[in-house]
Amino acid sequence: MSAVLRGTGAAPGSAVGRLVAARVGSPAARPDPAPPTDIPAALDTVARHMDDLAGALRTRGRAAEADIVEFAALIARDRELRDGAARHLAAGLAPIDALAEAVREFADVVAGFDDELLAERAVDVRDIGRQADALLRGEDPAGGRPPGGAPAVLVGEELAAMDLLRGARPAAAVSERGGPTGHLAIVARSLGIPLVLGIPLAALAELAEDLILVDGEAGTVEANAGAGVRTIPAPRRVPGGGAGQAITRDGRRIRVRANVATVTDALAAGEAGSEGVGLLRTELPFLTEEFGWPDEERHVAMLTPVLAAVPPGLVVVRTLDFTGDKRPPFLRDRRITLPGPDALTAQLRGVMRAASDTGVEVALLLPMVDHPRRIKHVRGLLADACASLGLVPPPLGAMVELPQVLDQVDDLAEHADFLSLGTNDLTSRLLGLSRDDPRLTPASAAHPTVLDAIAQTIRAGHAHGRAVSLCGDAAADPAVLPHLVRLGCDAVSVAPTALAGVRAAVRAY
């Protein structure tokens, strides 16, 4: 009988392969003409590798993943990290020990930030440290690959998003630490890589010689998957499969749309039969901005190719959401992430110009709304921007993701044209769990406290004739979706890979 280890499923799908430890310390696979001999040189090399990886990802249309890697390159170049290493060297530590102490201190500082999403970047700090450590030892930072050409199941105590992006793409991944709402899980879901969290490395070590089956939905790792006849579950991601409207068995239609950020995402949404776009994230291409908020021309240049690739239907464009770990360098030392009127007007004009040029019907969505007056203020800016362009203002909606706005959600529904539930932040804040807490999963939105907030929002929206949608990973979770249908949610927005499964589930209710 094969052994089954149980953890937490964080990215759906199934794959068979052999375990490969991330950054195992094999001899360098790509020798440098001048291998780094000191800490600054090692960090410079890591930063260059990150730059090269980001460039390769961007040329393949994976802008969101490229932004994550480029942010990691900034960490490798961070002056505070380097000064800490120099201080420990001056105190007499050997280079490898001095680097380890500096990384530990810097990661502890980042992990201690009040902003939970920003605190998650401590994982990336430690990952940069491990890469630099491997280079100083003359080892390959990317680790090895399984023998005989077998698919790789990447494992580690604390995998980072970059582990999935550099080198050959693994068939699946297993990380002892991490949460289902962290960067690792987000990238795994984006790439369609099954991911299981919470299984100790010591337990996995006993399976090192076996082919194993990773089920990212059940959250299991099964040994001896290659023994005898084994049927691998069909991929849950079926491009275009089940396209069309999602109508429940009693005749209620629920619009199922995609979340996108890049041209690649938009094309994938079209292939999967999405009814437009439920959430277009505009902040990801700007996470490396050094000198201030993007101007109008930058917004037009970024949005136009994405809008040109979206499937037919309404496209909900969220304004810049620089919060948590999605914070560009020009905001690194600032807590205020809402733009001033001029910066917001530049984006509103950029969105409307790109929509007009591509002929796409758009709606605007404001993130992190803490009071109904925010909607009133932005509606005035939007009206002025559209008047200057000779265009009709589009619908303007509000995200419900801050618990404090629930007390005013009726007033919010009166002034917004639609409401969209952001369950990642709402669930985290309502349950008092950090975004990297393993207990916080998309299924956590089925907690009674969160369901009460969802129900309250839907009631308020419908009382004012407003549509209410949910645009987070929870909408694709089988523990949450039935509640959304029961409570009267009008639309859900999920990753393109989840569209077919969500449509099928809605049709079964």
Automatic annotation (TrEMBL):
<dbReference type="InterPro" id="IPR008731">
    <property type="entry name" value="PTS_EIN"/>
</dbReference>
<keyword id="KW-0670">Pyruvate</keyword>
<dbReference type="InterPro" id="IPR008279">
    <property type="entry name" value="PEP-util_enz_mobile_dom"/>
</dbReference>
<dbReference type="InterPro" id="IPR050499">
    <property type="entry name" value="PEP-utilizing_PTS_enzyme"/>
</dbReference>
<dbReference type="GO" id="GO:0016301">
    <property type="term" value="F:kinase activity"/>
</dbReference>
<dbReference type="InterPro" id="IPR036637">
    <property type="entry name" value="Phosphohistidine_dom_sf"/>
</dbReference>
<keyword id="KW-0418">Kinase</keyword>
<dbReference type="InterPro" id="IPR040442">
    <property type="entry name" value="Pyrv_kinase-like_dom_sf"/>
</dbReference>
<feature type="domain" description="Phosphotransferase system enzyme I N-terminal">
    <location>
        <begin position="6"/>
        <end position="121"/>
    </location>
</feature>
<dbReference type="Pfam" id="PF02896">
    <property type="entry name" value="PEP-utilizers_C"/>
</dbReference>
<dbReference type="GO" id="GO:0046872">
    <property type="term" value="F:metal ion binding"/>
</dbReference>
<dbReference type="InterPro" id="IPR015813">
    <property type="entry name" value="Pyrv/PenolPyrv_kinase-like_dom"/>
</dbReference>
<dbReference type="Pfam" id="PF00391">
    <property type="entry name" value="PEP-utilizers"/>
</dbReference>
<feature type="domain" description="PEP-utilising enzyme C-terminal">
    <location>
        <begin position="245"/>
        <end position="507"/>
    </location>
</feature>
<keyword id="KW-0460">Magnesium</keyword>
<feature type="domain" description="PEP-utilising enzyme mobile">
    <location>
        <begin position="151"/>
        <end position="219"/>
    </location>
</feature>
<keyword id="KW-0479">Metal-binding</keyword>
<dbReference type="InterPro" id="IPR036618">
    <property type="entry name" value="PtsI_HPr-bd_sf"/>
</dbReference>
<keyword id="KW-0808">Transferase</keyword>
<dbReference type="Pfam" id="PF05524">
    <property type="entry name" value="PEP-utilisers_N"/>
</dbReference>
<dbReference type="InterPro" id="IPR000121">
    <property type="entry name" value="PEP_util_C"/>
</dbReference>
<protein>
    <recommendedName>
        <fullName>Phosphoenolpyruvate-protein phosphotransferase</fullName>
    </recommendedName>
</protein>
<comment type="similarity">
    <text>Belongs to the PEP-utilizing enzyme family.</text>
</comment>
<dbReference type="GO" id="GO:0009401">
    <property type="term" value="P:phosphoenolpyruvate-dependent sugar phosphotransferase system"/>
</dbReference>
